[in-house]
Write a structure and sequence with these properties.
It is built from 13 helices and 6 strands. The chain has 310 residues and is of the alpha/beta class. It has 2 domains: 59 residues; 229 residues, 3-Layer(aba) Sandwich (Rossmann fold). A 6-stranded mixed β-sheet has the order 3-2-1-4-5-6, with helices on both faces. α5 runs antiparallel to α6.
Length: 310
């Protein structure tokens, strides 16, 4: 069920969305229905599922959908401009990531690329009120030195080495450029690995869709598949049969972002979750500081966390 924190956050989001409307009676009726949706969410239904229903209700009342196209293009272009620089920094780590005895970031291109990919999760207009360019730049500059769960990373490398197919579940625009860089490095390190990328089926917040994936060029390194859903994650009961079959046929999955964690945690598949703790609830759940990075595996669950999805 939804946590109290998530409920409060969803209510605040609805109130913010009503700021530009003057019809108080209509706003009150909308809030009554919105509160009913939030109160009646079932076990296993997370905040991203609630957002989809609430956005549908908002459109019914006000005939308006919130667009993040400007923000999506801005951050895709911003990170594309830094792509060569980031690749150069990753390529400075020249030792092969196939060395399973490796226990630090020095010399490991794959780990460096994964760190940059996780840093990209900062570009999130759902969990954050605003994305600060100065904070993003600072995170990018310090990415190679970012703390990482090295025990889980060694497990990840072994899984990659043994896998035939890997599926990457993307999250936000801008972030997907970092994911593109990661996929490029991953393909260079493991050329026989079949890599698939899943994106959102419809525009939601600043999440990446198929057109966004093609715009940044990640389709040059992996097949891109739409999940057919407008949920800001991969809520398995709501995604397309094609996307579900791809998830089920993959030996391992890398799920980016809080939304993918919220919608998939507890599903029992071999998923590695990579994201930054951006909201108060995630900071409390993982016992970490704001904007610290998480890298954990669904099967081992080597962490103490209360799930809002179970």
């Amino acid at each position: 069920m939804l946590s109290a924190n998530c409920m409060c956050c969803l209510v605040k989001r609805q109130l913010k969305m009503l700021d530009n409307y003057d019809d108080e009676e209509k706003k009150a009726l909308y809030m009554k229905e919105a509160l009913s949706i939030i109160a009646n969410m079932k076990n296993g239904e997370s905040a991203p599922v609630a957002v989809k229903r609430l956005d549908g209700l908002f459109f019914e009342y006000f005939n308006e959908k919130f667009s993040f196209e400007e923000e999506k293009r801005k951050y895709n272009d911003l990170i594309l401009q830094r792509e060569d620089e980031i690749l150069e920094r990753i390529n400075s780590f020249r030792n092969s990531s196939h060395n399973s005895s490796h226990n630090s970031s020095q010399g490991d291109r794959l780990l460096a690329a994964l760190k940059f990919s996780r840093i990209g999760n900062y570009i999130d207009f759902g969990a954050l009120q605003s994305v600060e360019d100065s904070t993003l730049s600072s995170l990018i500059d310090s990415a190679p030195d970012d703390d990482f769960n090295m025990t889980e990373y060694e497990n990840f490398k072994r899984d990659v080495q043994n896998a035939k197919r890997m599926c990457i579940l993307t999250d936000n625009c801008g972030e997907i450029v970092f994911d593109k860089i990661f996929v490029k490095v991953l393909r260079e390190e493991y050329p026989s690995l079949d890599i698939k990328v899943i994106v959102r089926g419809f525009p939601v917040l600043n999440d990446a869709t198929y057109s966004d994936a093609v715009y940044v060029g990640i389709d040059r390194y992996a097949e891109v598949v739409s999940n057919g859903s407008a949920v800001a994650g991969n809520y398995l009961p709501d995604i397309s049969k094609e996307a579900l079959a791809l998830i089920d046929s993959s030996d391992l999955l890398l799920a980016k972002g809080q939304g993918n964690f919220e919608t998939m945690f507890g599903c029992g598949r071999n998923i590695y979750y990579a994201f930054l703790c951006k909201c108060e609830w995630f900071v409390r759940r993982f016992g970490m500081k704001r904007l610290e990075g998480v890298f954990v595996n669904e099967l081992r669950k080597p962490f103490s966390v209360q799930s809002s999805t179970l």
